[in-house]
């Protein structure tokens, strides 16, 4: 039986992972693919949920059973591999965080009329305040849960206002009229790619949730995280579907903003600002925490100054955004990183699952390993295609 403290930690880890996934890119991708595929996007979402769950269960279980962060597991599978993974995650997380800070600035611009740069600075300050607080872990859990629930509630309202054809969406969840492999790969990468899937697992380690005895709770946490992110995806899809089905055309410059505005007028547009800010600021927190957690185990000084390094990480991302401006090219490169990190890290976890020196007496379920290998192959193909497109 799980006590209240452990349940709060588990829920906090689930929301940290989910809100790390729900960033500016998540909102934009969902709106764009709904406009492209219509009700058939429901089938893509269903497949992505299954793939996400497989990746998440494998990674969370192995990390917590081994009681080691992913980079240490990787170093035990092959010396030096953990450093390579840590470098990819750290640089990819920094690139994405530049975009997240820009998104937070845009959210405050829509909501309060602030200059985007000023909004970005204020948002970075709020994120930094969480890690300055002496109980940063609890503050981070609370922040992720409150803003996660807020985003879901506001998007539910917009979905209701847009009056989507729910029956048609349910039918095409099973029998789609069209399909896009690119859409599937993109939203899987955006939900469990890069640093995102490790956010919750590393949070559980920090809270002392480790070992085989916690596996049932870890399973619940992993599936809850995917459930939260998927619920937001479904609600945003329904909101966009209602708008598109009514004959409206989404603004290519800001598709998710036009969904909210077309569904509920100026009030909807202001709500979009709040949702965008919430999505971006929680992703800033999640990306900073997880990126630094990948280098923390390499030196005692890094662990000692963990929160200060996270603050420096956020400050650096904010400064780069203010100097460079819109980080479009950086985000494209980061997308390639995300596409490569998941299959590599998941493959490492699958190998570690059969290494007694790492997992002790733990026995990995065969079906989970087989499903995990299938996801590795799929995501490797995505990473390859992304690199080909970048070099073309």
Helices and strands in order:
Elements: H1 4-21, H2 24-37, H3 41-66, H4 70-77, H5 81-112, H6 116-132, H7 136-162, H8 166-174, H9 181-192, H10 196-206, H11 215-245, H12 255-293, H13 300-304, H14 306-324, H15 328-352, H16 356-359, H17 366-391
Helix pairs in contact: 1-7, 1-10, 1-11, 1-12, 2-9, 2-11, 2-12, 3-8, 3-9, 3-10, 3-11, 3-15, 3-17, 4-5, 4-15, 5-6, 5-12, 5-14, 5-15, 6-12, 6-14, 7-11, 7-12, 10-12, 11-12, 12-14, 15-17
Describe this structure in words.
- By secondary structure, the chain is mainly alpha-helical.
- The protein has helices at residues 4-21, 24-37, 41-66, 70-77, 81-112, 116-132, 136-162, 166-174, 181-192, 196-206, 215-245, 255-293, 300-304, 306-324, 328-352, 356-359, 366-391.
- It is globular.
- The N and C termini lie far apart (55 Å).
- The mean pLDDT is 88.
- The chain crosses the membrane at residues 37-60, 81-104, 110-133, 142-160, 180-201, 222-247, 267-292, 304-324, 330-354, 366-384.
- One of its GO terms (molecular function) is metal ion transmembrane transporter activity.
- InterPro entries: NRAMP_fam.
């Amino acid at each position: 039986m799980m006590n209240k403290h452990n349940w709060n930690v588990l829920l906090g880890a689930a929301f940290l992972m989910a809100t790390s996934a729900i960033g500016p890119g998540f909102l934009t991708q969902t709106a764009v693919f709904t406009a492209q595929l219509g009700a058939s996007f429901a089938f893509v979402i269903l497949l992505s949920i299954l793939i996400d769950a497989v990746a998440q269960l494998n990674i969370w279980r192995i990390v917590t059973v081994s009681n080691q962060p992913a980079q240490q597991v990787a170093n035990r599978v092959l010396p030096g591999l953990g450093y390579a993974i840590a470098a990819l995650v750290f640089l990819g997380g920094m690139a994405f965080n530049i975009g997240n800070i820009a998104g937070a600035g845009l959210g405050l611009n829509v909501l309060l009329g602030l200059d985007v740069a000023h909004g970005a600075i204020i948002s970075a300050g709020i994120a930094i305040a969480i890690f300055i607080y002496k109980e940063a872990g609890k503050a981070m859990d609370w922040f992720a849960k409150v803003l996660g629930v807020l985003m879901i509630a506001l998007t539910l309202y917009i979905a209701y206002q847009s009056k989507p054809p729910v029956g048609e969406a349910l039918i095409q969840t099973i029998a789609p009229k069209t399909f896009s492999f690119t859409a599937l790969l993109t939203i899987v990468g955006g939900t469990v790619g890069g640093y995102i899937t490790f956010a919750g697992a590393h949070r559980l380690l920090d809270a002392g949730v480790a070992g085989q005895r916690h596996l049932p709770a870890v399973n619940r946490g992993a599936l809850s995280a995917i459930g939260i992110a998927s619920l937001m995806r479904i609600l945003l899809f329904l909101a966009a579907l209602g708008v598109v089905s009514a004959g409206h055309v989404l603004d290519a410059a800001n598709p998710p903003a036009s969904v909210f505005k077309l569904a509920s007028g100026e009030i909807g547009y202001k709500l979009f600002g709040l949702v965008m800010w919430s999505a971006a600021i929680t992703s800033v927190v999640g990306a900073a925490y997880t990126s630094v957690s990948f280098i923390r185990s390499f030196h005692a000084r890094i662990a000692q100054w963990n929160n200060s390094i996270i603050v420096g990480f956020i400050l650096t991302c904010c400064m780069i955004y203010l100097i460079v401006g819109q980080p479009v090219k950086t985000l494209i490169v980061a997308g390639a990183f995300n596409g490569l990190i998941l299959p590599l890290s998941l493959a490492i976890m699958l190998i570690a699952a059969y290494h007694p020196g790492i997992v002790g007496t733990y026995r990995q379920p065969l079906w989970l390993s087989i499903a995990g290998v299938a996801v590795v192959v799929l995501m490797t193909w995505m990473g390859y295609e992304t690199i080909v497109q970048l070099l073309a």
